[in-house]
Amino acid sequence: MEEYQSKQVPENLDDPPNSRLFAVTSRSITEDELRESFSVFGDIQGVWVVKDKQTKESKGISYVKFAKSSQACLAMEEMHGKVLMEGTKPIKVFIAQSRSSNRHRDVEDEELTRIFVMIPKTFTEEDLKDTFKEYGDIEYCVIIKNKFTGESKGLGYVRYYKPSQAALAIENCDKTYRAILAEPRTKAAATDEYSGGGGGGRGDYVPSVDSMNQYALPMADPGNYPVMDYRSGDFTRCLMMSTRAALTQEQIFALFDLIPGMEYCELQRDAYGMSKGHALIRYSNLGSAVYAKEKLNGFEYPPGNRLAVNFVDDGEDRSSPVGRMAMQFVATQMMSAVWNGPSTSQVMKPPGFQAVSPMSRVQTDVNLPPLKKLAPPDSKSKERLFVVFSPSPLPPDVLEDVFCRFGSLIEVHLVPGRKVGYMKYADKQCADEAMAALHGRVVNGVKMKVMLADPPREESHKRPRNF
């Protein structure tokens, strides 16, 4: 492995976090060519080209260390899939794992887009968005509130669309916000309230990622939320979702956000930061809540795991004439949809939500073409797509349902033990159309990165691919 020049090598290669890139390139790409291509994104502190110990030839794997994580993230976003030299294959660029990490997977983009901040308790979600929007486009903001009083706890989340935007916010926002990346809470949590002191001279301190565990806020048990039955007329804007599968906050958010009007979504966790299998969701209007309950209660997600969605008491007074009229109106709409079939239910269909039956296995905001037949199994493959799934792969039958709609799909192959797969097409144009339509999209709560797959290597000491 090539060494950094001694004057360039930082003492800690992971300082700041996520500032080192892992690149898969052609074996002919040199260190100087990598440095020249990546230097436009910021201050490069060093480049490694991994070489075979015996032959001293490049293995086609390299590392690039930047001075800032925002520079590394921007380089990843811009250079992934680019061709550095004519005649070479497109490179793949990822954020490198921490050298102390014991994980066996790449750092996902989704882990780099959400930040956790301390804010004044007077902040509204609009204030939070206005404060951090200068660093990039914001997907959503959430303020953590006391479950009983509804008052802000002075803590919040901001999710950006790109990792470089989140990194810029952490680097450049006022240090009093103590912005850090919000990672999954896996260690013991502390108390309901943030107990950090404000010692003199510590105003510029930014907590480490591990220190986020002290912010884990256990939610009350579902028993504290009286469950309603819509047949009794007790409609509310709040829903409680129960699941036996280990769903993440992001998966639940993506699923319920398909219905417009969602203003709050939080997965309940115990004192150790582990999921309780329940989530609380609140909508801004009664109609959206009723529609979400009707469509998602009993829905299998992921396939084989049936969700339970029920109304919970949101503390609002529905005894007034206006409250009773609103409930009666929504009840009439819903019952009309149930008795009169799909044509009437279209009245309640929110924009951007694909019309599907309650038992449909595909939930997505993509406008998918109609189903098409698979190409014959013995068809010659003209193009293969490489798909990366986050947080977990979709079932093969769901993938086949989605990717066959663009025509000439031969087969779907998932790589065992990894969050990737290949789609084999008999026609290149059909593959290109599928890639253009599905790259970056969410299907059944799973985000997909769809790219052209590298052609199988002709010279390899490994077993030949059979897909």
Q: How is this structure best described in words?
A:
- The protein has 10 helices and 18 strands.
- The chain is an alpha+beta fold and 467 residues long.
- The radius of gyration is 25 Å and the shape is flat.
- Helix 2 runs antiparallel to helix 4 and helix 6 packs parallel to helix 7.
Can you summarize this structure?
The chain has 467 residues and is an alpha+beta fold. It has helices spanning 31-38, 69-79, 125-132, 163-172, 249-256, 286-296, 321-340, 342-345, 396-403, 428-438; strands spanning 20-24, 44-51, 58-66, 92-95, 114-118, 138-145, 152-160, 180-181, 227-228, 238-242, 262-269, 275-283, 308-312, 383-390, 409-414, 420-425, 442-443, 446-452.
Question: Keywords for this structure?
Answer:
467 residues; alpha+beta; 5-stranded antiparallel beta sheet; 21% helix; disordered N terminus
User: How many individual helices?
Assistant: 10
Low-confidence stretches: 1-7, 185-233, 334-359, 458-462
Question: What's the arrangement of strands in the largest beta sheet?
Answer: 9-13-10-12-11
Element pattern in H and E: EHEEHEEHEEHEEEHEEHEHHEHEEHEE
Radius of gyration: 25 Å
**Structural class designation:** alpha+beta
Give the N-terminus to C-terminus distance in angstroms: 32 Å
Q: Count all strands and give the number.
A: 18
Helical fraction: 10-25%
Shape: flat
Give the overall pLDDT as a whole number. Answer: 75
Q: Oligomerization state of this entry?
A: single chain
Strand content: 15-25%
The profile of the biggest β sheet is: 5 strands, antiparallel
